[in-house]
Amino acid sequence: MFDGSPWRLLPWTGPDGQPCYLHTDNPESRLSMLADDVEEQMLAAAELLLDEVTAESRVLRLALRDVVRIAVSRGDRLAEYEE
Fold first, then answer.
1. CA 8 to CA 73: how far, in whole Å?
2. Which residue, among 39, 35, 46, 29, has the nearest Cα to 74 in the 3D structure?
3. Which long-range contacts link 14-19 to residues 24+ away (Cβ below 8 Å)?
4. pLDDT score for 34
5. Could you report the per-residue pLDDT of 1-60, keeping only the tens digit for each?
6. 2 in the Ramachandran plot: left (φ > 0), alpha (ψ -120 to 50) or beta?
7. What's the pTM?
8. 20, 37, 58, 73: which could form a disulfide with 10 (CB 3.0–4.6 Å)?
9. Beta bridge mates, 7
10. What is the pLDDT of residue 46?
11. Which residues fall within 8 angstroms of residue 24, CB to CB, at 6 or more apart?
């Protein structure tokens, strides 16, 4: 039924809170491009939030910084893989 294309975890959940996945070999499909845009917006929001976290929230700041770093790194690796 499906070829060897990977399943992509989408950046939103279904109405019941369950993860949503996309299976396609077309990174330029409408849903793939929408997911790319939403991920970019989420990363931008996280980076803005990171700037707003106060010194008292040091643990939250460190955790959020690491999550943003990992997400950006993962996106960079995926872009290299697709080329």
1. 17
2. 39
3. none
4. 92
5. 455 667 888 888 899 999 888 888 888 899 989 988 888 888 888 888 877 776 668 888
6. beta
7. 0.67
8. 20
9. 23
10. 82
11. 5, 8, 31, 32
Distance, CA of 71 to CA of 56 (rounded, Å): 25
30 Cβ neighbours under 8 A, 6+ residues apart: none
Is residue 32 within 8 A of residue 43, CB to CB? The reply is no
Q: φ, ψ for residue 81 (rounded to 5)?
A: -65, -40
What's the token pair of residue 80? 């290299």
More confident residue, 31 or 63: 31
Alpha-carbon span 20 to 49, nearest angstrom: 25
Picking from 82, 1, 2, 67, the residue whose alpha carbon sits closest to that of residue 36 is: 82
Instruction: For 50-79, give one letter per residue: b (16+ CB within 10 A) or e.
Output: eeebeeeeeeebeebeeebeebeeeeeeee
